[in-house]
Amino acid sequence: MLKSITARISAERAAMAFVILASALVGRQAAIGMDAAQGVSALAAILGASMLVVMVKSWPKPERIKVKARRDD
Question: Within a domain: residue 35?
Fold first, then answer.
């Protein structure tokens, strides 16, 4: 159980770090100067990174399936 909790927390933190990194890179390039196509592409990159965070946060936990043990007669 502890393993799944730590894996989920690390996945959430990695996804959030990805959003921060993408935003920082886009902000730096916007300060230098971008044309319209580059701006739209940068917006798509930030939205994609944000969607990754939403997917990681809302992804359902795997359900356990009860399996009946069979005895060989």
Answer: yes
Copy the structure tokens of residue 60. Answer: 């359902």
The pLDDT of residue 73 is: 54
* Cα 49 from Cα 43, distance rounded (Å): 10
C-alpha 11/C-alpha 32 separation (Å) is: 32
Residue 9 located in a structural domain: yes
pLDDT at residue 40, as a whole number: 92
Q: What's the structural domain count of the chain?
A: 1
Q: Residue 33: helix, strand or coil by DSSP?
A: coil
- Residues spanned by the domain of 47: 2-58
- Would 29 be classed as within a structural domain? yes
Q: What is the CA radius of gyration of the chain?
A: 20
Low-confidence ranges of the chain (pLDDT < 50): none
